[in-house]
Amino acid sequence: MEKFRVTVASLPDRERLVAEILYEGVQWAEISQEKGDELIIQIYPHPRQKHWEFLYDEALQILEQAKNKLLES
């Protein structure tokens, strides 16, 4: 889990805050609330490999952590 980082940010093209999820300094996902109170997740392609690969439980844990951090902001 130490390779993951969650940052809550205010982006110029968004009305509300977003939670950016990075792995080894590369963004792989973003959670936002741009459409009402529903959470939306965007998954980005890996810039140098065919795909991202994580342990299932770690991915779920970091997504939950990002959601909570966003909702608390």
Please explain how this structure is put together.
The protein has 73 residues and is an alpha+beta fold. It has one domain. 23% of the residues lie in helices and 38% in strands. The chain has a 4-stranded antiparallel β-sheet with strand order 1-2-3-4, with helices on one face. A hairpin with an 8-residue loop joins strand 1 and strand 2. The model has no long low-confidence stretch (mean pLDDT 93).
Q: Per DSSP, what share of the residues sits in E-state strands of 2 or more residues?
A: 35-45%
* Share of helical residues: 10-25%
Pattern of helices and strands: EEEEH
* Contiguous runs where pLDDT drops below 50 for at least 5 residues: none
Largest sheet: 4 strands, antiparallel
| Strand ordering within the main sheet | 1-2-3-4
Count, helices: 1
Count of beta strands: 4
The value of Rg in angstroms is: 12 Å
> What would the principal axes of the Cα set say about the shape?
globular
Write the layout of secondary structure elements.
Layout: E1 4-9, E2 18-23, E3 26-35, E4 38-43, H1 56-72
Antiparallel strand pairs: 1-2, 2-3, 3-4
List the defining traits of the structure above.
single chain; 73 residues; four-stranded antiparallel beta sheet; 38% strand
